[in-house]
Amino acid sequence: MSASTTSKAPVADPKNGNGEAVPEKKPAASLEEDDEFEDFPIEDWSEEETQIPGGNTHLWEESWDDDDTNEDFAVQLREELKKLGQK
Amino acid sequence: MPAFQAGLESTFCNEVNLALRNRDANKLQSILVLEPPFQPIYQQLIDSLKNKFPENDPKAEKRLEDVVRRMVTETGESEDEEGRPVASWGQMVSFLVGWMAFIRDINLENLLETYERLSDLQQKANSALQHPTKGILILPTLIRYAKVFSRVAIGLDKRPELIQHLVANSITEDGRRESLPEKAANIVRQSFITCLNDRNTAPRGIKDGKPDGKKVGIYKMANICLKILFQADKLESCQTIFNNIYNSSPPLSIYPASERVTYLYYLGRYHFASTNFFEAQLALQKAYDDTPTNPACMSQRRLILIYLIAANLLLGRFPSAAIYTFPEAHGLRARFEPITRAIRKGDLESFRRITNLDLSDEHAAWFSHYRMFYQIGNYCEVYVWRSVFRKVFLLTGQQGVTERSAPTIDLHAVLLAFQYFERRAHMTPAMAQQDAGPGRRHITFVLQDFMPQGYVDPDFEGLDVTPYIKTPDILEMESICGSLIMQGFLNGFISHKSKRFAITGARKAGNALKAGFPNIWEVISKRKSQDVPGWRKEALSEAAGGGVIRLAGARPAGS
């Protein structure tokens, strides 16, 4: 799925993982792409089966501002900003 | 015709009749198989049909119909237990005849013909479903068929050479060409509507906490329609389904987990594509939370997670390190982290490279494939702006000369930063690196050599088009600053005269950074409701104590 060349052509020929046409055993199933949301193998399940080890409380980072003014990026920008008032 | 002449056909009809009499819908489904390879008994039936009711005999179907009508007595008029008349079920007769003709004639070599025959059979099943009391018996069969039908439709859509003539001839009322998947989805949609509008159910379609009557099929049918439309990239056609469900479905929470999760995935993606990222995030988070961690469900978890991360990113919320450690998140850090890094730092140059319309970035094709490239480019840019302002404030901002004067940022300083980034973004990475080296003071020399190319879409190739080269000026800085203030991402005002942005509320907040640069996620989530169009949650009166709707993902503690 990481190969950007194969993921770019949603209307291209149907093919399997090897990029070859698949024999017509199951005509349509073979035409699926990797971004298809497949049917679940089971119909129903309990809430316990969905628990992530460690819970799902720290999945997202809301405060991510970067205060670092000493790393390269900030140092370069500071240099650039010294032009202020020099014009 | 004497019964012995239609021996095997009669046997099958008998079996069907028995299943109907026992109201055993699953048994009926198991009899009415659709796909090869057929078991020997079906092969015998097919041979018998070919022999006695051949396709080329114009009267064959009429004769078959007579057999079905005579043997499947459950399709006749009758009375229910309380003596009320039950209408005859002629559509079921047509459907059964259609089924026999289908297995007699099926030729998988010919995908188009298979599609057309399936389409015909699907419509006959739709009609049979409409019987007020008995229709429900065909529901499992119909769902099974609709899945096969959708696979064939999706498959055909990817073989344009086979369907050109079909598409060319189908123009909708508003003059638009209707694609084959849309036609297929419309056929499946009929049974979805029949399920949704079933009046022969307990009040509100709920019995013992479960969907009653044909309403049990609402989300199964909807999900099949949505799958077809999504695979064919016809998201705009999904709106009606979501509206219908929102307006008249029993709550989603009483349906099996697989149906809920699948539906919320499509709903989330639909909202994502419609730029309703908050609604998308709510639906996708619930879908993700409710998907089993079982490795067998890895592909579903991964797809949901990809869109969930993107939706959060677009709301100013970044994936934590923990997410990237999940097995389904394999490889996602390399995709998303360059973007979050650029936003954090205010690195507009890197952001421009990542979102360059020529798809030159190594991950651009991937984002484009998942249909999130333009959203990220357009909407996250605003967050980069905010970070540029913030970084410039950190590097040059004035805290306010007296205790009473506000901290300010010189918009000319912000302009310098923007110009610096935009200029570098037009260079090749090698050139930009050189520009940052020891010789970077000689910027005039670099600029002499450097002419930005700009982007011209391939659609305009050969035309005399001058690409737009972005060169920010002070007016644009005021405009961007104003836009950030309006969106709530900067807190303060612009002094047009001195070309400065002044932060308000710094003393109250304790520091200028906190006061001037509100948290993006907090700003957005505060003004959004938890309501998601298309997501039929529990009715308020029933929700008390239900506890099925978990909003943990929407607003974690401490935010």
UniProtKB/TrEMBL annotation, chain A:
Segments of this protein annotated with the region Disordered: 1-68
Residues making up the signal peptide according to the UniProt record: none
Gene Ontology CC terms, in alphabetical order: nucleus; proteasome regulatory particle, lid subcomplex
Organism classification: Eukaryota, Fungi, Dikarya, Ascomycota, Pezizomycotina
Primary residence: nucleus
Functional note: Component of the 26S proteasome, a multiprotein complex involved in the ATP-dependent degradation of ubiquitinated proteins.
Protein family membership: Belongs to the DSS1/SEM1 family.
Acidic residues bias spans: 31-50
The name this protein goes by in its record: 26S proteasome complex subunit SEM1
Organism: Melanomma pulvis-pyrius CBS 109.77
Record's keyword terms, sorted: Nucleus, Proteasome
A Gene Ontology BP annotation from the UniProt entry: double-strand break repair via homologous recombination
Subcellular localization, as worded in the UniProt entry: Nucleus
From TrEMBL, chain B:
Protein name: PCI domain-containing protein
Source organism (scientific name): Melanomma pulvis-pyrius CBS 109.77
UniProt superkingdom: Eukaryota
Matches recorded under SMART domains: PAM
Signal peptide positions (record): none
GO molecular function, one term: RNA binding
